[in-house]
Records
---
Amino acid sequence: MFSSLLFLTYITVSQAENPSHDSCKKPSISWDALSMDKLVMNIDSYELCAKTCKNTNKQHYENNCNYFTWNDGNHQYFRNSCALFKSPGDEQECQNCMSGAASCFCASPFACQDTGDNVAFVHTDTESWSKCEEHCNINFGCSSFTWFTEDHPYRHLCILYKECSHSEVDTTCSGCCSGVRSKKSPCSQSQYKELSSAHRSVHAEGGKNRDRSYIRDVGGLKSADWRAMVWYRFTGEAGTKMAEQFPGWDNCGTTWPGYLAVDNDSNKYNDYKLSLPTQEEGEKEMTVCFAR
């Protein structure tokens, strides 16, 4: 008797307002000149060279810039220049130069740290920071996350954290990009309504209650705690969760009660047999069966 979805909690850490990218700097290192895609002149700082590399990607240049080398004002052959690379070759030592990876220049270039009980989940093979953010948004226990870039030994790992305070971050990590969940959890109190009526309990007798905003030819009354299609949480006399097996006809304050089609021995007559969402899955569509 209910169009359902399920849920849980969270906390946040703010992103750095003026992030330091010192950990991204690779002094006296560059790559084989044969792998260079472009050399831009009149670039008078490392930061401007990094920005030039990232802007090249926004302009849909034929060869995206993934790495760069800034040659300073004392360089012997091309002063104040910025070498752009899509796929760098072998690493080489250089003088009056400093290199970096475009992926390291994110809004929060640091890593949250494991304090013993704050890791919610770890995803492998996560191809981008935005995908890691997506993992955090659907994991109700996640407040913050750290994604490791292509150049880090833990590349493409995405670690979800229950909490991450400023005292628990590693600002020396090169190739670490962190963030916070950008979507409110349905389990935060302002995001859901409560279903608390005693007639919703599996122990309640039948009745004429319906979870719908209008009643056509079926008769009955709209349940007092029903507020249309929003997130709900079972509380109070209704219990703590929706029924996961058929409660029997004329129960739960209605004639034809609904129950979640989960995979258990009591639901041998339904064909769905879905498992409840794990912490990794987070938000998940489920099927509700109605006995008629």
Note: The chain is about 10% helix and 25% strand.
---
Amino acid sequence: MAVHMQFSGDAQKHVQAYLDYYNIVGNDDNGQVMSEAEFEAYKKKVQKARENRLYVAWRNSKGMDCKMVGPSSSCFCGHRYRDHNFDNVKTKEVHCKDKKCACRLFSYVPIYGSADLKCLCKHSYMQHDPRTKKCKTAKCTCSKFISNHSCSCGQRYPEHTTVFESREERQKQGRAVDPPHMKGNLAAGMGGVTDFASLADGAEREEMMRPMLPGAAHRAIEGGKEEQKEKVGGAASESGTSAFELFMAPHQYGGTVKKIMPSKNFAQYIEPAKKMVGTVSYTHLTLPTSDLV
């Protein structure tokens, strides 16, 4: 159940100030809030490293960035990415800040919430050593963590690796980096998150950017009810059309079918499309006339 909190007067400003502070400092203050002078000194200290931060992704053997690591992404050691030394840009030695933790390098684990990732030995990844990956359970003969977890890309867990790249390295490969308006962003542990679309799985991002076949798109919009039940690419609804299908399909506007053409404003369509839960009717997607031809 959602909890709504209301603040009046200066309380709202104080709460927002702390949220801004936490987004930058994270747990580096060891639970003791810094003074204003200490906070300003801290920002100057990390500014260069975060403007040229490490981009972290969970990549499959075919080169697809299946998951872009963010502040709350889980490591094999059980800690979050924000709990690691992500400011070690030059050496890329992103080890855990917890002195009691044996983790020497962040290793992404594809879990959400209370979910678990189990080894073929039937023990959780948390029951394996974060350095050797050997099972720590008594009498277990498992020498290395191996999981059959299947990614949305179709490949399994062992066929993925956690990669650390600089801005220059990603640009040379033609991969996404922070847009100009994010310059000066000091948020802690951003990892591979560059925009709203980077929160989606790699397979979903690829599908979202792939144009539909004209015939399939035409059927999705103008076909009869039986034809509309045909799946074109995603999960079908009563109208047979998924949000991603409609995102790339021609749209009905002003009584004529008009096709979305690539433009500089292409990114603005991502958010309304992503807000659609599951599948929707095409009439629910509104686009500006300036990008319809």
Note: The first strand starts at residue 55 and ends at 60.
---
Amino acid sequence: TRKQWYQRRVRGNLQNHHNPYEEFFRNPKKISLMASDAIFPMLQNSMSFDLGLNPIQFNDDKAVDDFIANVDKDFHLVMILEQLDECLVLFRRLMCWDLEQVIYVKLSVNNDYSASISPEIRQKILEWNAIDLRLYNHFAEKMKRLLAEQDEDFWAEVAELKKINAKFWQQCYNNILPVFDGNKLGYSLHETHAQNTTCKTLATDDFTQTHVIGMKQFKDTLSPSDILMVRNHMQNLRKYNPAMLGWADVHKVLNPDIPADPDTVNEL
């Protein structure tokens, strides 16, 4: 996959360096040449690329302005991670959902490298991702204005979401496990919630969930090798995050009417 290629060719050449960011920004264009045309956008302004901006337009101010305006027009709400609880309450209101439907579990943290970035490297990162910075600043300012318009009921709802989320974490998980794979968090489940699908689903990373959804959509055309790849991926991750979905849970999704065979859904 594109992600795996990037990890092998680019991150693989930097991860053993004492300061990968410093090494990359010594000559970012040279290092980026190790990536194919399909991979390069992952290394610069990746948010903007994912939202549709062509890399050849990175130096075209009008094209960037038009791109940001179009993103603003296309999305009713763009959330800001630093204000996640507030954004989730806004999202809940747009969707007419209950607060319980926007609870979440933290699955990644800043790694040691991120925490030790010097002011000089931080500035280089901002300059290298100048289009993403413009995109972020636009929606951060918009969110700031939107939150300033909210009443006391809104802020009471934000406080209630934090309370509900904390209670959910306490009920589901008894331990936060050591960080693995650079920045991922793992959890262990309370025995009382060992079979709770919600607890397990929210502790499962987006990469795995995307594959599980894809398997459900295309289960009749999947090759055995595709299924084995997902199963091996999940089994490897569950060594570090036992609270996530297991292969038996996937079997229930793919074959809800067929009892699981212990010999074929053995967890690890």
Note: The longest strand covers residues 173-180.
---
Amino acid sequence: MYKAVYGEGTNHNHIAESYRGIADVYTDTGEYTKSLHYLTLSLDMTKAIHGDNITHIDIAYTYHKLGRLYHNTGQYTHSVHCYNMALVQRDRCNTAHLPLYTAVLVSLSSTLFSSSDYKHDKGLLLLALKHLHTDYCKGTRANICQLLGQCCLHLRQYRKCWKYLYSALCYYESLPSSNWKMKSLAQVHLYISYLCLHLGHVSQAIEHSELALDLVESVLVDRDNITPELTRLYTDITHMILGLYSTLTLYIDI
């Protein structure tokens, strides 16, 4: 429709924004090649609109979306590059755009976590937490605390791991009921289970794993809620429980 209004071959912010919206739909449905096509169109058009002055917040938003897309396809080097470009664009803009800044830092940390760069990851998350307003979305704060807990677990900083995971648990619990909340709580309980196992508390590890399983199963009751991410989480939890009961059996036999 925008093309009909502005004419074919016209570069306009509304058309570029529409391309980003179409890309989001394809990303949600897992059609990443099509999503990449429309994000590239959006990025090229936005750069064409602003000419030599390619510093613009819309470019930063597009690079952020590209980074998430590459992360979803396992292309972590490209993902990190796009996130860094988003941060460069944001830094050059006159306004702070703190929500975008925080979102990019969290997204970048997720990619670094997937690359096992836990120390760098933790530093970015602490920076994101520092710039987060006190009254900002509890869900975002919970996500950051959860990721910090995961990093600290891998860095064997167990006291800090518990501190952040417990904070994430409290933040998630305070949110209205939703499938996203149930899934997030399940993830936290699974990592608390990992922490308990590292500390030798097998019974507590089983308790938290079973809590995680109950939460995921409550979401999976409706088959429309099944996603690849939720399926992976369910598999991780069931494998953890089986491993824990095997460990407990060994203890009893001894």
Note: Confidence is low (pLDDT under 50) at residues 1-7.
